[in-house]
Amino acid sequence: MNIEWYIVLSSLLFAVGAMGILTRRSPIVILLCLELMLNAGNLALVAFSKMVGNQEGQVFAIVVMVVAACEVVIGLGLIVAIFRRKLPLDVDELRELRG
Amino acid sequence: MEAVLFFAAALGALGGAVGVVAMRNPFYGVLALIVHLFSLAVLFLLLSAAFVAAAQVVVYAGAVMVLYVFVVAYVGGDTEPAWDPIPGQKFLAPLIGAALFIELSIAVLGSSLLALSTEGTDVGAGFGNPAAIGKLLLEDFLLAFEASSILLLLAAVGAVVLAGKQGEATAGESKGAEGGSSEHSAPKARSEDPPSAPSPAGGVSA
Questions:
Q1: What separation, in Å, do the N-terminal and C-terminal C-alpha atoms of chain A show?
Q2: How many CA within 13 A on the CB side of residue A65?
Q3: Residue A5 and residue B105: Cα distance in Å, rounded?
Q4: pLDDT class for B84, splitting at 50, 70, 90?
Q5: Under CATH, what is the fold of the domain A3-84?
Q6: Is the ipTM here above 0.85?
Q7: How many CB atoms lie within 10 A of CB B103?
Q8: pLDDT at B39
Q9: Distance between CA A81 and CA A72 in Å, rounded?
């Protein structure tokens, strides 16, 4: 398969993830959509690494996975903290920081 | 054969992604994301990135998704009410998503990268296997490797601080339980989870 296919698929997945972030209101689902976008980036990195024949893109992808794991851990910690303070799990309700 | 595998995996990845966005219940969303991640692992294998594919299955589809399932089960996967606090969101969001996709495609395909329409470099058998990636990680990218291990440690500590019990924070066994002082099963499981996710990631990167 040509590399183009992978790149187009990756941008499609990224767009789907972005759409999810725009539409959904539950913080958990927003985190899931963030995962989608990060994975689309990973797919593009690995595809480009195959294109140039250089493994460094794959190392980048692994680092992205590590960062995504950290982000998930912190995000889920925040969700649990929100839940335990009995605040609504809805990003439209949680808008104290809005100016 | 390769084309069949690609289209099957691409369909799985796309279906999983749409499932995540469309499912009302977060629990089904997590399951759809697992399908998505497995399909992506197949795509990584097709791109001769064996180690990344294995890490994807073990770290993402394994550890991270288990974390999600636990949190959804703890918080309670209540279905969120239908749409619109912002008027027109239902129509604007797909529009903006489509615009983003078109823009990204134009940006990438319109770049004059000639190698895009090839199958990529003809790489040998050792490309992307654990030995090669490990050598690269521990020689050329040692600093990034150490930095990401510190990042994992900080994230674990941060999650414990965030989700651990704070002062008089009450914790129910199940959702909706009010003010019970029986804070032993749920919060404890919670504060033990975060370190368990980073450690497989660290283990894999090693």
A1: 49
A2: 38
A3: 11
A4: low
A5: Helix Hairpins (1.10.287)
A6: yes
A7: 12
A8: 93
A9: 14
Instruction: Report how many helices (DSSP H) and strands (DSSP E) chain A contains, helices first.
Output: 3, 0
Cβ pairs bridging A and B (under 8 Å): 266
- The angle that helices A56-84 and B198-205 make with each other, rounded to 10 degrees, is 170
Q: What is the reported pTM? A: 0.80
Contacts of B179 (CB under 8 A, 6+ apart): B170, B172
Q: Which of B75, B79, B89, B170 to mutate to test the interface with A (most CBs of A within 10 A)?
A: B75
Cβ contact, residue pair A69, B59, below 8 Å: yes
In angstroms, the Cα distances linking A44 to A7, B8, B95, B122, B142 are 6, 18, 23, 18, 23
Contact residues on chain A for B64, CB-CB shorter than 8 A: 35, 68-69, 72
Nearest CA-CA partner of B72 in A16, A27, A38: A27
Q: Are B33 and A13 in contact (CB under 8 A)?
A: no
Selected for mutation to probe chain B from A59, A89, A94 (highest B CB count within 10 Å) is: A59
Q: Which two tokens stand for residue A73?
A: 């851990």
Higher-pLDDT residue of B54 and B113 is: B54
Collect all residues of chain B within an 8 Å Cβ-Cβ radius of residue A77: 158-163, 194
Task: Locate A1 and state its tokens.
Answer: 């398969």
* DSSP 8-state assignment for residue B24: S
